[in-house]
Amino acid sequence: MKLYNLKNIGTALLFGAILLGPTSCSDFLDEQDPSNLTPESFYTIPDHAEAAVAATYAGLRFYGDGAGIFSANWQLLEAVTGTATTETGQNSDLNNLYSLTYDGNTAHINNWWNGLYRIIANANLALEKIPTIPFLSPATPAQQTKLIGEARFLRAWAYFNAVRLWGDVPLVTKPQTATSEDFFATRAPQEEVYKLIVEDLVAAEAAGLPVFETSGRATQMSVKALLSKVYLTMAGFPLSKGASHYKLAADKAFEVITYSKANPTTVNLFPTYKEIHTEALKNRLEHLFQIQYNVAVAAFPLNDYFPNFKAVTYAGPGGTGSTIPTTSFYNSYEKGDLRTVDQEGWFYTTYYTNGDGAKFNLGAPYVFKHFNQTALGAPGITATRNNNLNVNLIRYAEVLLIYAEAQNEVGGPNAEAYAAYKRIRDRAKLTTPAIGTFTQATFREAVWRERWYEFAYEGITWFDMVRLRKVFNEKTKGFDNFVGHLNLNVGSGVPLQEKHLLFPLGIQEMKNNPGLTPQNPGYGQ
């Protein structure tokens, strides 16, 4: 029937062409279909430039996309740290991450590659096309510069993640087609990748972005914060830039701290931990940059932190428990640390039936850090059932500890570095030893330890392990060398190996692009 209809439609079109009279056949065939958009036909007005950058921001949400049953992409950065384990065993890829037996077929690894390079591709297209769009009114050239700055910020973020995950990666800076000369791009040295990251962020910093705002878009504060983090990473492994880049990291972080001191109601720490995961406070104060979520487009994606089949939300018994804290890590926090207090800090050990009913014991600590009481329910709060919480990428707390660490490496723990470190501990209701009791070495480990406790379950810990080549030992509360450290989250412990400093490249991606060879060491071909 469909073939018959198409045949008759074709006949009707032929008669229509005859009835139209002496219209040129070539004119008819050359006419553009206005609904068939291409990069050449689309980028013509400023609104198209806005759309291009919006699409690049939207690409950040790959972070929360599914990676098989009871799993999402973000778990790549948590399962391998040793601070998390699982109550479910259905997802073999996730289990392989926990046991450090992953390979180039692991879904999370492939999804991160595809997600990051999709952001890069969108940013590259925006960077090529936005300068060609006429911005005619007196105000719009500034808009053009700002949009280019945002695209460069997003490209830098994507490459920063890629180079830390895989080391040498393809450095693609132009839109690609199947006929592009470098369509099968080879891997560039990490030094070159970091060079582009810094160039992008320095350009973004000078692009006229607002100092800070609550729209969720890049600002001067988020750019400076990310740049300080990049410098800190470059100072450590594998580039080992050392003192020069610790100084750059400290100086850039201090610019954010200086702004916060002058504008404490704009950029600062939240007084309480609950405010960090309060939906009404998204993109404010401590949140320097977040991935934006709204159920109209995509709902908050960290629900795999829910306990398995325990009625902690309006939906009743549910959740997957596929990422939960290890008891050993939870117990390693200092006694009295507010971050371990039930429903006050990062964890909860009790909750309320269906969100707002009778209180019950969960039987173990679970992650409360991302629990949205507005959406899920709490005593006196009727759940909205729309989880619109954002995902944190950079908090002001991280800027404080970047400064403390970097400044200490430059010249030991001065008063500003000590004050930054102490602010994190003050919020946790902990007593901090006097500055005079610290040496450079003891302050170094104190700041590292605080990073483990403050940024647990935020996709930060793994990258600290790699850049420091050190891992927090939950039993001794000191730091082991990366190679040989036993992760306590699986059985009797799984030792980290040299190969784990990088993830493997995806097998299918290597088949598609022979230029990616060789595979990262230790993972075969």
UniProtKB/TrEMBL annotation:
Name listed for the protein in its UniProt record: Starch-binding associating with outer membrane
Stored SUPFAM superfamilies: TPR-like
A Pfam family it matches: SusD_RagB
InterPro entries to which the protein is assigned, alphabetical: SusD-like_N (IPR033985), SusD_RagB_dom (IPR012944), TPR-like_helical_dom_sf (IPR011990)
Domain SusD-like N-terminal: 27-232
Source species: Dyadobacter psychrophilus
Sequence similarity: Belongs to the SusD family.
Predominant location: membrane
Locations listed in the record: Cell outer membrane
